[in-house]
Amino acid sequence: MVQQPHQRRIKYQAELDSDFGRQIAAMPGGEKVYSCIQCGACSGICPMSIYMDYSPRRIIAMIRAGMKNDALRSQTVWLCASCYACSVICPRQIKITDLMYALKQRAIQEGAYPKRFPIPVLAREFFQTVQRDGRTSEGRLIARVYLRTNPWRLLKQASLGYRLLRHGRMSMRRESIRSREELQTLLRSVG
Amino acid sequence: MDYLYYPGCSSKGNGIAYEESLKAVFDALDVRMDELPDWNCCGATSYMSVDEWKAVALAARNLGLAERQADGKDGVDMIAACSACYLGLIRAQRYITDYPELGKQVTAGLEAVGISFKNRVRIRHPLDVLMNDIGTERIASRVKHKLAGMKVACYYGCQIVRPYATFDDQQSPVMMDRLMAAIGAETVNWPLKTRCCGGSLSGTVPETGLRLSFILLKEAKKRGADVVATACPLCQFNLECNQGEMRRLFGESLDLPVVYFTQLMGLAFGLPSRALGIQRLFIPLPAHLLSRVQEGGRNVRV
Amino acid sequence: MSGFNSSTNGHPPRIGVFICHCGTNIAGKVNVPEVVEFARTLPFVAVAKEYKYMCSDPGQEMIKHDIQQYGLTRLLVAACSPHIHEETFRKVASEASINPFLFQMVNIRELVSWVTEDGHEATEKAKAMIRAAAKRVLFHDELEPKKYPVKPGVVVVGGGIAGIHAALVMADAGERVYLVEREPSIGGHMAMFDKTFPTLDCAACILTPKMTTVRRHPNITVLSYSEVVEVSGFVGNFKVKVKKKPRYVVEEKCVGCYECIEACVFKEPRFPNEFDLGLGKRKPIYVPFPQAVPPVPMIDPETCIQFRTGKCPKGCVNACGDRDGIDFDQKDEIVELEVGGIIVATGFDTFDASRLPYYGYGIYPNVYTGLEVERLLNASGPTGGEVLLRNGQKPQSVGIIHCVGSRDENTNRWCSRVCCMYSLKLAHLMKERTGAEVYNFYIDIRAPGKGYEEFYDRLLQEGVHFIRGKVAEVSDWAMTPDEENRLVIRVEDTLIGMVRRIPVDMVILSVGLEPQRDAQEVTKLFNISCSTGNWFMERHPKLAPVSTMSAGIYLAGACQGPKDIPDTVAQAGAAAAEVLALTHKSVIEVEPNTAFIDERYCSGCQICVGLCPYSAIYYDEEKKVAVLNEPLCLGCGVCAAACPSGAAQQHLFQDEQLYAEIEGALVGVG
Ligand SMILES: Cc1cc2nc3c(=O)[nH]c(=O)nc-3n(C[C@H](O)[C@H](O)[C@H](O)COP(=O)(O)OP(=O)(O)OC[C@H]3O[C@@H](n4cnc5c(N)ncnc54)[C@H](O)[C@@H]3O)c2cc1C
Ligand code: SF4
Ligand code: SF4
């Protein structure tokens, strides 16, 4: 991030959403955001933090400060690999990984996630397939995601796909369960 | 039935060799494992970001179906081999207890479709079952070919010990290392054994996701590993199938075989390699490794 | 039933109820005027009043005045905990010539306003408790406090700097002191250090003279390598049994020449020395460190050839010669002491760093704990004060990790208070002795003592690196050539906002302070309690920081909570003064909460005789009833609880009092 001389880095209180911290604290995983001591252990152990625009520790500070837009638009949550390394090292037992999920949901709800980031697309595809069939088949799913986001990559991945098929490790068959309606009823009733 | 078995979606695709070798090994040990009828997707990770509650409901349907199989017993043990499924199912159980509102909705939703649910299933990882129920003694007594001289880097990955350490130490797990020792293999001392392989990021942001896998493999190789043993289809895929792409991105070729720990067990048990899905590996186990395998103190080739 | 007219000469009792606001502490939650109105409606209540601070002089005067004016015969104060002000109001009662035991205190602060969310519920609870007390107090009897003579003498348990200082203060004041230390030498942790923060005085120079004074002091008996095994009695009259473990060298005969150690058949020290945390070696016969007090060697039977095979040429015995100091047949010895007071000064233990595998302790040889490094730096330690790694080399870069095991819900929740400062001390000494680059990794620097911030500043000037971040991992996993074969510390530098990897040759873990592993057993032995985390609990965190809930037993030093040497010594002095205040009294008053046995109801079953832990009850063969020997009774209440016929009762806790209280509390319930 190279700072331009005309760019200002300052936050005015008026730009903040003072309720944001409380809202996140009310979601599963967010319970303990107010216990964070900003020690940075989470971000030190996180294998992805070196690629994130804000480390998990800074995300927590931003949540508490009410920097809703910056937090929801950051790449951080989409780069989280869900490895739980942070959650088990945190001296305040903050469920940071779960917190990342909470933020992902908020970002999707508010349409605030970074554009052209394929993860929300993957999630949505995944959701639709499971809703319909009860199971996913990786081959079909990945193909569809790339078609939506990055067809060029699909071509590049084609040889990998071919090798998987040849080794009997990918099937393009649609997997599904028997009681599909039962599952759909269940999913409709929750949430 | 000794255990119920929850295969998970990837067992029908990329992870097929894990299922094949797991079943073969359990058969060889005379442990019965019955597939959960009409199981559905566990609701793991990426799905969670859309709707956590629905994800819990998905997992809970499997749990409810498992209870149905309990035959009036107080609980039932269900094996989930894929790390994501293993965690997804346990996590759903915890969420249902920790967040009563969610628990109520899910239970009611299940009852409405005729599935009663008491949150009584014990989700078990194969490593847990092998080490704690079956035990190294029984495993060692089944070994036909000691994997002598084979240096294995045990890779646990993230989600079987984190965040819920139900059967091994969260920061430095040892079960797989002990299991490998029981079948005569050597294990390498490798501080990255629980560091993330990149998970699904290897597909979505490959430059970063693959780098995580690359670092792991490079270090394992540096420490003299002949092979990396994994316990999850996604880890195995990342570490093995992407080595070509890693070579392209990072300019270094690794050629380190990556297998399922169950495949190594099967080899040690003397099971036919086809039954273990060995032929599905992209990077085959090199001949010199297989020719070091010992039977009754003599080298044999398998 | 003794009934409630015992002190009212046939007139109906007249109760005064006084309700305290305690500023906003009570009144902020409880609707006090409403409670006063309610109290006025209770039977026999002659007056009910409120006041902002009942314990203040005007509050006390008001009560006295009302006792006279309304001719009160029973007194009830609803305020804070009886631990704090029961004595105050009992005094008020007797000054206004009501027997102080015709009084009952109701705790509507700790038990009501502080723990109830809802104001209405709090008010109702306060009413119920007052109604209960107003019923109970009707059944109170006039009692006299029991008086006992106070025995001279004090037992101090633990010979660290706390125990040493307290012992010296009391001995100088003429008190007889028994200093019980379970290790072979007194000195505690401080004896392990080379220098002490923040002034960097040499620990030995300031501690050793005190240790020798203790040994020479005519009023102090040091019982080293000894442990307290039993405590009985009560304030002013304790009986303490101490077990002296065999050291196989007779203290009385030993002159401290150490010729026996020289002459041991092991020419070189070969066994890990416990005092050096295994970094140095000792022989089977040894003194843990040169300045040990008493300066008497001991033999470790685990490693001594004579003990293991019975066939040693016994160089030690020959060397000792006529002095005849060595005795392989020594056995445990029990010493019984009678004293007026006890100081518990058992100190702390350090956090076991191997509980955090991600810091590599016990995995990588060059990861040390702070305490181990204290030994390496010590001029009389295993390396003579030179810092050498396990491979014999000097480190060129050192990482010091703060807060190891502290401030962490996965291990210990508390701040250990001394680690920041000792980390700074170690940083300074490492730089001074080795010239290494030193990196301190901290979460927050806590340097609040006198001269401490200045010490931090000094370190900053010395060029020690300070990186704010809790280290995530220490490993031998190299990413760059300069990381090869070194320990790599991975941390988020939270001030720069970037992850850093810093390769070092040596890692020092600033392990936190923990209660001693046997803290629970010690609390049972002395009948004291623990705060959260197993630190010994003081009677009041601010106003009675060295007393315990058990009268006559006091706390000093780090056993009460993490503290540095200045605070430890201050607290030890305070404990000494409080004990002296006790032992300098000729008599002591104790609660008249003894038992009594009503012969009329006793069936002679003798259950109580066997149960009484103090053998205060015997069976009268002639009358066929149990009889209490009151001076022996300590008011534990076991007999009263066990008696099937209600004959055995306890003053202040009689059945009728308790039933009345319960009835009062439950009016209108179900
Ligand atoms: C690495 C490190 C460095 C430090 N450096 C400094 C410094 O430079 N400056 C500073 O001010 N503070 C320093 N401290 C803090 C200092 O150690 C404590 O303040 C001090 O030791 C507390 O003294 P104590 O007597 O209460 O406890 P301790 O020193 O722990 O002594 C307790 C004694 O009681 C004995 N004992 C325990 N249980 C029993 C029992 N049941 N029966 C009989 N005896 C028993 C023990 O054997 C021990 O001798 C440091 C602490 C550590 C860990
Ligand atoms: S590890 Fe926990 S306490 Fe430390 S910065 Fe991260 S979330 Fe906050
Ligand atoms: S769970 Fe996410 S945020 Fe936490 S350490 Fe892993 S990648 Fe980083």
How would you sum up this structure, described in words?
The complex is a heterotrimer of chains A (191), B (302) and C (670). The mean pLDDT of chain A is 87. Chain A has helices at residues 20-25, 41-45, 56-65, 68-73, 76-79, 85-89, 96-109, 118-133, 138-149, 151-166, 180-189. The two termini of chain A are 40 Å apart. Chain A is built from eleven helices and no strands. Helix content of chain A is 54%, strand content 0%. Chain B has two domains: 36-124, Glutathione S-transferase Yfyf (Class Pi), Chain A, domain 2 (Up-down Bundle); 138-299, Rossmann fold. Chain B has helices spanning 16-28, 52-68, 83-98, 100-112, 126-142, 175-182, 201-204, 206-222, 233-241, 243-250, 261-269, 287-290, and strands at residues 3-6, 33-35, 76-80, 121-124, 151-154, 186-187, 227-230, 258-260, 294-295, 298-299. In chain B, helix 3 crosses helix 4. Chain B is globular. In chain C, helix 11 crosses helix 12 (419-434). With 670 residues, chain C is α/β, with parallel strands linked by helices. A five-stranded parallel sheet of chain C has the order 10-7-6-18-29, covered by helices on one side. A five-stranded parallel sheet of chain C has the order 20-27-21-22-23. Chain C folds into five domains: 15-143, Rossmann fold (3-Layer(aba) Sandwich); 145-245 and 332-347 and 516-586, FAD/NAD(P)-binding domain; 259-323, no CATH class; 352-514, FAD/NAD(P)-binding domain; 591-651, 2-Layer Sandwich (Alpha-Beta Plaits). Helix content of chain C is 28%, strand content 23%. The chains are: A mainly alpha (191), B alpha/beta (302), C alpha/beta (670). The interface between A and B is large, with 57 and 67 residues. The structure holds flavin-adenine dinucleotide and iron/sulfur cluster (2 copies). One iron/sulfur cluster binds at residues 45-46, 48-49, 56, 80-86, 96-97, 100 of chain A.
